[in-house]
Amino acid sequence: MVDAFEKATFALKKGTITEAPVKTKFGYHVIMLNDVRNSKPKELNMVKQQIVERIRKFSLSNLEKEIRKNQNITIVDFEDVSKKVNR
Questions:
Q1: Distance CA 83, CA 87 (A)
Q2: Which structural domain, as residue segments, surrounds residue 71?
Q3: Is 80 exceeded by the pLDDT of residue 73?
Q4: Which long-range contacts link 27-33 to residues 24+ away (Cβ below 8 Å)?
Q5: Are residues 51 and 21 in the same domain?
Q6: SS3 per-residue string spanning 6-72
Q7: pLDDT tens digits, residue range 1-58?
Q8: In Å, how far from its chain's centre is CA 68?
Q9: Do 31 and 6 fall within a single domain?
Q10: Same domain, yes or no, for 27 and 49?
Q11: Contact status, residue 78 vs residue 60, Cβ threshold 8 Å
Protein backbone atom coordinates (compact mmCIF):
# COMPACT_ATOMS: atom_id res chain seq x y z
CA MET A 1 0.00 0.00 0.00
CA VAL A 2 1.13 3.55 -0.57
CA ASP A 3 1.97 5.39 2.65
CA ALA A 4 -1.06 7.71 2.91
CA PHE A 5 -3.48 4.86 2.13
CA GLU A 6 -1.81 2.59 4.69
CA LYS A 7 -1.85 5.24 7.45
CA ALA A 8 -5.52 6.00 6.84
CA THR A 9 -6.44 2.32 6.79
CA PHE A 10 -4.61 1.47 10.01
CA ALA A 11 -6.20 4.47 11.75
CA LEU A 12 -9.70 3.08 11.09
CA LYS A 13 -11.70 0.80 13.34
CA LYS A 14 -13.63 -2.13 11.92
CA GLY A 15 -16.80 -0.95 10.17
CA THR A 16 -15.75 2.72 9.92
CA ILE A 17 -15.08 4.99 6.93
CA THR A 18 -12.44 7.69 6.49
CA GLU A 19 -13.80 11.11 7.49
CA ALA A 20 -12.23 12.78 4.44
CA PRO A 21 -10.98 11.39 1.12
CA VAL A 22 -7.40 10.16 1.24
CA LYS A 23 -5.15 11.59 -1.46
CA THR A 24 -2.49 9.33 -3.02
CA LYS A 25 -0.56 9.40 -6.28
CA PHE A 26 -3.39 7.26 -7.68
CA GLY A 27 -6.14 9.76 -6.83
CA TYR A 28 -8.60 10.26 -3.98
CA HIS A 29 -10.00 7.37 -1.93
CA VAL A 30 -12.80 6.87 0.55
CA ILE A 31 -11.82 3.84 2.60
CA MET A 32 -14.10 1.57 4.61
CA LEU A 33 -12.52 -1.05 6.85
CA ASN A 34 -14.72 -4.14 6.65
CA ASP A 35 -12.59 -6.62 8.55
CA VAL A 36 -9.22 -7.14 10.19
CA ARG A 37 -7.27 -10.35 9.78
CA ASN A 38 -4.22 -11.46 11.66
CA SER A 39 -1.75 -12.80 9.17
CA LYS A 40 1.87 -13.77 9.38
CA PRO A 41 4.44 -13.77 6.61
CA LYS A 42 4.99 -17.16 5.05
CA GLU A 43 8.12 -19.03 6.07
CA LEU A 44 11.04 -18.81 3.67
CA ASN A 45 11.01 -22.54 2.90
CA MET A 46 7.39 -22.15 1.70
CA VAL A 47 8.21 -19.38 -0.83
CA LYS A 48 11.87 -20.03 -1.63
CA GLN A 49 11.17 -21.82 -4.92
CA GLN A 50 8.88 -18.99 -6.09
CA ILE A 51 11.61 -16.45 -5.29
CA VAL A 52 14.21 -18.48 -7.19
CA GLU A 53 11.89 -18.73 -10.21
CA ARG A 54 11.24 -14.97 -10.24
CA ILE A 55 14.95 -14.22 -10.06
CA ARG A 56 15.67 -16.72 -12.83
CA LYS A 57 13.00 -15.21 -15.10
CA PHE A 58 14.26 -11.71 -14.37
CA SER A 59 17.85 -12.75 -15.13
CA LEU A 60 16.89 -14.43 -18.38
CA SER A 61 14.83 -11.40 -19.37
CA ASN A 62 17.82 -9.12 -18.78
CA LEU A 63 20.07 -11.47 -20.76
CA GLU A 64 17.60 -11.41 -23.64
CA LYS A 65 17.54 -7.58 -23.57
CA GLU A 66 21.34 -7.47 -23.69
CA ILE A 67 21.40 -9.89 -26.59
CA ARG A 68 18.84 -7.86 -28.50
CA LYS A 69 20.67 -4.61 -27.75
CA ASN A 70 24.04 -5.95 -28.90
CA GLN A 71 23.34 -8.19 -31.85
CA ASN A 72 27.04 -9.05 -32.18
CA ILE A 73 26.79 -11.46 -29.24
CA THR A 74 27.08 -15.10 -30.24
CA ILE A 75 26.16 -17.82 -27.77
CA VAL A 76 28.37 -20.78 -28.52
CA ASP A 77 27.40 -22.97 -25.60
CA PHE A 78 23.99 -22.24 -24.09
CA GLU A 79 24.70 -24.47 -21.08
CA ASP A 80 27.60 -22.27 -20.02
CA VAL A 81 25.38 -19.20 -20.27
CA SER A 82 22.55 -20.82 -18.31
CA LYS A 83 25.01 -21.89 -15.56
CA LYS A 84 26.24 -18.29 -15.23
CA VAL A 85 22.68 -16.93 -15.10
CA ASN A 86 21.51 -19.54 -12.58
CA ARG A 87 24.31 -19.22 -10.03
A1: 6
A2: 44-85
A3: no
A4: 29/5, 31/5, 33/9
A5: no
A6: HHHHHHCCCCCECCCCEEECCEEECCECCCCCCCCCCCHHHHHHHHHHHHHHHHHHHHHHHHHHCCC
A7: 899 999 999 999 999 999 999 999 999 999 999 999 888 888 998 899 999 999 888 8
A8: 26
A9: yes
A10: no
A11: no
